[in-house]
Amino acid sequence: MNAVRRKKLMWVLFTLAGAAVAVVLVIYAIGQQTDYYFDPTAIAKGEAPQDKRIRAGGMVVAGSVQRAPNDPLSVEFAITDFKSTVPVTYQGILPDLFAENSGIVATGKMQGTTFVAGEVLAKHDENYMPPEVAKSLKENNRSGTGAASGQYKPAEPIRDNQAL
C-alpha cells in the first residue's frame, strides 16, 4: 500500500473511531438523564431501584404532612395510589400548590422504604393531574378529589427544555 492510500485510510479510521466515541457518549448522557416513573404500588413491591434517581407520584395522603419543629424546610408526607402508601421526605420549599389530597410527582432516590425527594412538582390547577399519576389511579380504579365527575385530564408532559 502506498503512502497516500495509507494516509487516507488512517484519516477514515480516526474519523470513524471519533464518531463511534461521540455516539457512545451521547447515548450514555441520555441514559443518565432518564428518570423512570414508579407508582407507590411498584415502590412498595420493591421494584424501584435503591440509590438511583427515579420519579414517584401519587396523591398526598390527608394528615400525613409533618414539618420538623427545628427545621421548617424539612417535611415528611406520604403518597398513595390507593393501593399502597410510600413515605416521602423532602428538604426544601414545597410548591405553593402542594396540598393534601392533591396529585404530585417527585424526583429523588429510594433509601430503604422511604423516598427521599430532591424535587416536588404539584398540580397547577384543579383540572390538571400529572399524566403518570392519572394513569396509575385509573389502573387502580380510583380517583382523586373531584375526579369522579371527570374533572382531571392528563396534560402534555413538560419537556426538560420547556420553560415552566
TrEMBL record:
Residues bound to heme: 124, 128
Membrane side Cytoplasmic: residue ranges: 1-8
Superkingdom classification of source: Bacteria
A Pfam match: CcmE
Protein topology in the membrane: Single-pass type II membrane protein
SUPFAM superfamilies, per database record: Heme chaperone CcmE
InterPro entries, alphabetized: CcmE, CcmE-like_sf, NA-bd_OB-fold
GO MF terms, alphabetically ordered: heme binding; metal ion binding
Region (Disordered): 135-164
Location in or out of the cell: Cell membrane; Membrane
Keywords of the record: Cell membrane, Cytochrome c-type biogenesis, Heme, Iron, Membrane, Metal-binding, Signal-anchor, Transmembrane, Transmembrane helix
Keyword DNA-binding among UniProt keywords: no
One biological process term in Gene Ontology: protein-heme linkage
Annotated function: Heme chaperone required for the biogenesis of c-type cytochromes. Transiently binds heme delivered by CcmC and transfers the heme to apo-cytochromes in a process facilitated by CcmF and CcmH.
Family: Belongs to the CcmE/CycJ family.
Name assigned to this protein: Cytochrome c-type biogenesis protein CcmE
Species per Swiss-Prot/TrEMBL record: Psychrobacter urativorans
